[in-house]
Amino acid sequence: MMTINDFPIQTYITVQWGDMDAFRHVNNVTYVKWGETARIEYFKSIDFFNSAPEEMEFAPILGFQSVKYIAPVVYPDIIKIGTITEEIKEDRFIMKSYFFSDTQNKLVAIQTHEIIVFDYKNHQKIPVPNTLKELIKKIEE
């Protein structure tokens, strides 16, 4: 069984009362926000997103995302998110974030992120640079 300890990058989110909706569980859009936070933490950990945008040679752009909801989450709780890069393609890479409920002690959602690498100087997507591939491989070992 997969646990948060299986992931090189872990992000902890405290569920807020305001994260819930009228149905008294965390609103589905909240998972997207949490996934964004986890994704940025991953990028920061590999030193991919630590500069001002105008100083970056290239940067990550979210091209696609989806969330598979497995179980509802309610306040109070702590969500532990484990993020990995699952696949590196020529012009994009696929990341996944696994959301674990501390209260329920189980996996409650999985988010898929398709990341495009964007060259801001030339205003176009570019192949995933080898330097970035190496940074990802290093953290995933």
TrEMBL record:
Sorted UniProt keywords: Hydrolase
Residues forming coiled coils: none
SUPFAM superfamilies associated with the record: Thioesterase/thiol ester dehydrase-isomerase (SSF54637)
GO molecular function: fatty acyl-CoA hydrolase activity
Entry similarity comment: Belongs to the 4-hydroxybenzoyl-CoA thioesterase family.
Protein name per the record: Acyl-CoA thioesterase
Native species: Tenacibaculum aiptasiae
